[in-house]
Amino acid sequence: MTAPQGHWRIVAAGFQGDLNLTADAQGNIHGTIKIDAPNVEQIHGFWDEAEQRLIFQRPVQNAGGKPQNYTGFLFPASAHVVAIEAAGEHAERRELR
Q1: Phi and psi (nearest 5°) for 57?
Q2: C-alpha span between 96 and 81 (Å, rounded)
Q3: Cα→Cα distances 96→40, 52, 66, 74, Å
Q4: Which residue among 18, 67, 95, 97 is the one 20 to 30 A from 5 at the CA level?
Q5: Alpha carbon of 48 to those of 26, 35, 37, 81, 87: distances in Å?
Q6: How far apart are CA 82 and CA 78, in angstroms?
Q7: Has residue 18 been placed in a domain?
Q8: N- to C-terminal Cα distance for the chain?
């Protein structure tokens, strides 16, 4: 399975938003996230093909640009659902749909 790309919906602690992902051949992930409307933040990270793991970071504008890290796994049986765990000061569970 290749890196997740395209438009995804994100639901986080009752907040909904949009996640747009692109990946290069090396598994580097770039895109945008809009979860703290109206802020649209750039994300960057990488895709681990062997572990089916997505890791990315966003600068939280409402926290002065402080980075928030995310790690999640893609499970084949759950088409377009990725469980994401956030780490750091803003820790919470996020699910992409």
Answers
A1: -130, 145
A2: 5
A3: 17, 15, 22, 10
A4: 67
A5: 9, 24, 29, 17, 18
A6: 8
A7: yes
A8: 17
Instruction: Evaluate whether residue 51 is within a structural domain.
Output: yes
Q: Which domain holds residue 25?
A: 6-96
* Residue-by-residue DSSP string for 51-91: TTEEEEEEEEGGGTTEEEEEEEEE-TTSTT-EEEEEESTT-
Residue numbers in the chain where pLDDT is lower than 70: 1, 11-15, 75-97
User: Is 76 part of any domain?
Assistant: yes
Is residue 1 a part of any domain in this protein?
A: no
Q: How many residues does the chain have?
A: 97
